[in-house]
């Protein structure tokens, strides 16, 4: 897993790549929570280069979502691949998160 971000005021754009699973979830959670603690009220998480994610990663994303919605913030996801999108549809998380097919559709605009 590799995670990078760019921050512009209250908006943090996070790009994750590789496999997001039980082994990498704690690092991802710490990374996202640090961005929130540092003042990000909008997280745009780009999963374009993620090859695999598991339920632990879903829990991390839900945790970030809960923290932000408590203060009127938002988490938006970029998921261009049907195989990952299907996971969110099966779990019903496509109704929790705003999901975009490309970064151009996000709050960054």
Walk me through the structure.
26% of the residues are buried. The chain contains 3 helices and 5 strands. The chain starts with a strand and ends in a 9-residue tail after the last strand. The model has no long low-confidence stretch (mean pLDDT 94). Helices cover 35% and strands 34% of the residues. The protein is of the alpha/beta class and 109 residues long. Strands 1-2-3-4-5 form a 5-stranded mixed β-sheet, with helices on one face.
Mean pLDDT: 94
Bulk shape: globular
Q: State the end-to-end distance.
A: 27 Å
What level of helicity do the residues show?
Answer: 25-40%
**N-to-C series of helices and strands:** EEHEHEHE
Question: How many strands appear in the DSSP assignment?
Answer: 5
Estimated radius of gyration: 12 Å
Major β-sheet strand ordering = 1-2-3-4-5
Largest sheet: 5 strands, mixed
Query: Count of helical segments?
Result: 3
Throw out a few tags for this protein.
single chain, 109 residues, alpha/beta, 3 helices, 5 strands, 34% strand
Task: Please sum up the structure shown.
It is built from 3 helices and 5 strands, in the order E-E-H-E-H-E-H-E. It is of the alpha/beta class.
């Amino acid at each position: 897993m590799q995670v990078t971000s760019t921050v512009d005021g209250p908006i943090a754009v996070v790009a994750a790549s590789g496999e997001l699973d039980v082994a990498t979830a704690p690092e991802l959670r710490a990374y996202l929570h640090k961005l929130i603690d540092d003042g990000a009220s909008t997280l745009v998480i780009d999963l374009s280069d993620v090859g695999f994610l598991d339920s632990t990663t879903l829990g991390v994303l839900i945790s970030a979502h809960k923290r932000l919605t408590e203060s009127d913030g938002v988490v938006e996801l970029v998921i261009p691949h049907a195989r990952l999108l299907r996971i969110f549809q099966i779990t019903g998380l496509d109704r929790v998160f705003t999901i975009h097919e490309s970064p151009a559709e996000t709050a960054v605009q």
